[in-house]
């Protein structure tokens, strides 16, 4: 089992559930906007939020932000180690430093001394876009991993072991290989992510393959799905990814792809009920017809299947009733609520 690292109220590693992270994209100095986005992220299911700290004003803003939110905050530091120290003093629950640009060993160790005093963990996070030159002789995934591991050794030299490690590439296979390499060398918890994964669809595909593969192999203690745009989407995808992998409980809608036999608008119904189902631990099947629908949806807690004259509602494969298309939504919501009440 990997070591456990405490980030505010969240434990990373040590057998704890895989936690979900995201990052704000508001200017950190704009306290009001940043707090608003953090609250949105938290409501979507985010458990740890990272903020960019590009200057001392941002490090100072961290203090005001921290007073207004209840979620652990991570200060993301590049280039200037003094920003890491300032962020720790202003209440950061964790620091992320990039081995590719933080500079000399003494700077890293200086950050470690302050982090140690404040009991704040450090994530050493290497990125494929900023691998230090001296590692270029290695194959890229090894270079990415070794860049992070060198920084880990710098921290260990001063007795600092409150460490999380990450190695992120824009490339799926590089991300996988780099993290397998790190997992074989150290037992610190691992933060997983594909960096600069792209816009929505490609980002979801790349993250699902890399993170899914690694998590199924037992590698990874906290994740960030990186998507260009609204970070709330990152959290929604991360949650669904963990549910799909069976690493987290949660409601889900299964829906047939439809074909010429479909008697109902499967997509419309599925999308309508999804927000409610996601608040439960139920699986709800929406199937276009009764020909295959009831059989294929029998593992679901609740299911619906279209017929020529109406919609059949079934539970664990047993038909409960047939309702008209117009009554479907109301009937389904009533059944969902009553099944939820039974289970609580
Ligand atoms: Fe087609 Fe019916 Fe299967 Fe949906 S459940 S794909 S409509 S056969």
UniProtKB/TrEMBL annotation:
Top enzyme class, one word, equals: oxidoreductase
Domain of life the protein comes from? Bacteria
Pfam families associated with the record: GcpE (PF04551), GcpE_C (PF26540)
Whichever gene encodes this chain, its name is ispG
Keyword field contains Hydrolase: no
- What reaction(s) does this enzyme catalyze? (2E)-4-hydroxy-3-methylbut-2-enyl diphosphate + oxidized [flavodoxin] + H2O + 2 H(+) = 2-C-methyl-D-erythritol 2,4-cyclic diphosphate + reduced [flavodoxin]
The EC number(s) given in the record are 1.17.7.3
Biological processes annotated in GO: isopentenyl diphosphate biosynthetic process, methylerythritol 4-phosphate pathway; terpenoid biosynthetic process
The residues covered by the IspG C-terminal domain are: 252-337
UniProt protein name? 4-hydroxy-3-methylbut-2-en-1-yl diphosphate synthase (flavodoxin)
Q: Which family does it belong to?
A: Belongs to the IspG family.
Alphabetically sorted, this entry's keywords are: 4Fe-4S, Iron, Iron-sulfur, Isoprene biosynthesis, Metal-binding, Oxidoreductase
- Cofactor comment text: Binds 1 [4Fe-4S] cluster.
Which InterPro entries does this one have? Dihydropteroate_synth-like_sf, IspG_bac, IspG_bac-typ, IspG_C, IspG_TIM, NO2/SO3_Rdtase_4Fe4S_sf
- SUPFAM superfamilies xref list: Dihydropteroate synthetase-like, Nitrite and sulphite reductase 4Fe-4S domain-like
Protein purpose: Converts 2C-methyl-D-erythritol 2,4-cyclodiphosphate (ME-2,4cPP) into 1-hydroxy-2-methyl-2-(E)-butenyl 4-diphosphate.
Give the pathway listed in the UniProt entry for this protein: Isoprenoid biosynthesis; isopentenyl diphosphate biosynthesis via DXP pathway; isopentenyl diphosphate from 1-deoxy-D-xylulose 5-phosphate: step 5/6
Task: Cite the binding residues for [4Fe-4S] cluster.
Answer: 256, 259, 289, 296
Q: Which residues form the IspG TIM-barrel domain?
A: 3-239
A molecular-function term among this protein's GO annotations: 4-hydroxy-3-methylbut-2-en-1-yl diphosphate synthase activity (ferredoxin)
**Which metal ions or organic cofactors does this protein require, according to UniProt?**
[4Fe-4S] cluster
């Amino acid at each position: 089992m990997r070591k456990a690292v405490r980030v505010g109220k969240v434990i990373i590693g040590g057998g704890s559930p895989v936690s979900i992270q995201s990052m704000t994209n508001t200017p950190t100095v704009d306290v009001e906007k940043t707090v608003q986005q953090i609250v949105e992220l938290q409501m979507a299911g985010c458990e740890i939020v990272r903020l960019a700290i590009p200057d001392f004003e941002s490090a100072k803003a961290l203090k005001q932000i921290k007073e207004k939110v209840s979620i652990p905050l991570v200060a993301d530091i590049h280039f200037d180690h003094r920003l890491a120290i300032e962020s720790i003093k202003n209440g950061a629950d964790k620091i992320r430093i990039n081995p590719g640009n933080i500079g000399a060993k003494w700077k890293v160790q200086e950050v470690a001394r302050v982090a140690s005093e404040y009991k704040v963990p450090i994530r050493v996070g290497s990125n494929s876009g900023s691998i230090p030159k001296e590692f270029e002789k290695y194959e890229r995934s090894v270079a990415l991993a070794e860049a992070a591991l060198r920084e880990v050794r710098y921290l260990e030299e001063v007795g600092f072991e409150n460490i999380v490690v990450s190695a992120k590439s824009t490339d799926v296979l590089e991300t996988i290989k780099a993290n397998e390499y790190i997992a074989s060398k150290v037992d610190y918890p691992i933060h997983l992510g594909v960096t600069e994964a792209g816009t929505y669809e490609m980002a979801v595909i790349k993250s699902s393959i890399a993170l899914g593969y690694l998590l199924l192999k037992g590698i990874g203690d906290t994740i960030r799905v990186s998507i260009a745009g609204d970070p709330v989407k990152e959290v929604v995808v991360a949650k669904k990814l963990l549910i799909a992998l069976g690493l987290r409980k949660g409601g889900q809608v299964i829906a047939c792809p439809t074909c010429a036999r479909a008697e109902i608008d499967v997509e419309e119904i599925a999308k309508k009920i999804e927000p409610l189902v996601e608040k439960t631990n139920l699986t709800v099947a929406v199937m276009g017809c009764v020909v295959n629908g009831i059989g294929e949806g029998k593992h679901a807690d609740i299911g619906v299947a279209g017929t020529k004259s109406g919609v059949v509602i079934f539970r664990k494969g047993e038909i409960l009733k047939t309702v008209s298309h117009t009554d479907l939504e109301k009937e389904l919501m009533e059944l969902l609520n009553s099944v939820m009440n039974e289970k609580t």
